Amino acid sequence: MHFSDLNAEAEDSDHSAAERRRAASRSTWVSVLVNLVLTVLQITAGVLARSQGLVADGIHSLSDLVADFVVLLANRHSSKDADEDHPYGHQRFETAASLVLGGLLLAVGLGMVWSAFLKLQQPELVPSVGLAALWVAGGALVAKELLFRYMLAVAKRVKSSMLVANAWHARSDAASSLVVGIGIIGNLMGYPILDPIAALVVGCMVSKMGWEFGWDAMHDLMDRAVDEQEVAAIRATLAGTPGVSGVHDIRTRKMGDMIVVDAHIEVDATLTVEAGHDIAVEARHRVLQRHRVLNLMTHVDPWRRPDLDHAPATAVQSG
């Protein structure tokens, strides 16, 4: 699941902005509670059991706590109404939050890689870990996987890319806990070096995910268009509006989880300006109702019958 997966589900969203905000707040507070408990357990058990991998995983959970509060902050600010300085609203605050999440993951991942690398420089100093570390790693794995599935279900239901980012942040924790568990098992079997290797792998995983989220959010902030499937769906809605004879030059740009659209529609050239305007208003209403479009700017172009469009000038005049 990635941001693009939400685009395929664009039509007929039944969830208002208020519902999306409530869902985001509720799921994020659940994540806060889970990550708070895991952070304390993992770091405490990691220190007492001498497991660098478990401590790294606990730091990852701690980064989730920070990320959760970033999401809560973004959810609050992105819900503000449009104002004079932000005529399209504040939806891009969500994209900015996703960029922060990506940067946070990247920084944490690189720090974990560096710490594990230093430990691997002196493998003879790597201690044997206690059995308690394995139990904590296993419990963390189950908790994080359940949290991921819950948050992703909420994100897909309300179509929020910011919540998708935070859900996959939880999944990265589940994957890291699995790697840490394997490293701890290896350490207990007499291969102590596997514990810092597990920490190194976790750091690489976190860094990769952080880069991907940050890169994706940066492109959205640069007015990236939505995918062709969603553009085609919007085009079909416009073309299906009574009175619209053609559609061309559709341009889109993402505004948080919403879309701003510019489109040219063609109407009968013999209609009055008022009639053409009414058709454009109806086309806009249909698009806003059926798609996650924040605003649609329509340009009305004249359309003539094909026989008149391509007839010689003298024939048109004589008619």
Describe this protein's structure.
This protein is mostly helical. It has 2 domains: 3-221, Cation efflux protein transmembrane domain (Alpha-lytic protease prodomain-like, Up-down Bundle), CATH 1.20.1510.10; 228-318, Alpha-Beta Plaits. Helices cover 68% and strands 10% of the residues. It has 11 helices and 3 strands, in the order ααααααααββαβαα. It has helices spanning 3-7, 17-49, 52-78, 92-120, 131-158, 161-188, 194-221, 228-239, 273-290, 306-309, 313-318; strands at 246-255, 258-268, 293-303. A 3-stranded mixed beta sheet has the order 1-2-3, covered by helices on one side. Helix 3 (52-78) packs antiparallel against helix 6. The termini are far apart.
Shape: elongated
Q: Into which percent range does the helicity of residues fall? A: 55-70%
* Overall number of structural domains: 2
**CATH topology descriptor of the largest domain:** Alpha-lytic protease prodomain-like
Question: Main attributes?
Answer:
elongated, Alpha-lytic protease prodomain-like, 2 domains, monoatomic cation transmembrane transporter activity, 3 strands, Cation_efflux_TM, three-stranded mixed beta sheet, Cation diffusion facilitator family transporter, Alpha-Beta Plaits, 319 residues
Question: What layout of secondary structure does this protein have?
Answer:
Blueprint: H1 3-7, H2 17-49, H3 52-78, H4 92-120, H5 131-158, H6 161-188, H7 194-221, H8 228-239, E1 246-255, E2 258-268, H9 273-290, E3 293-303, H10 306-309, H11 313-318
Parallel strand pairs: 2-3
Antiparallel strand pairs: 1-2
Helix pairs in contact: 2-3, 2-5, 3-4, 3-6, 3-7, 4-6, 4-7, 5-6, 6-7, 8-9
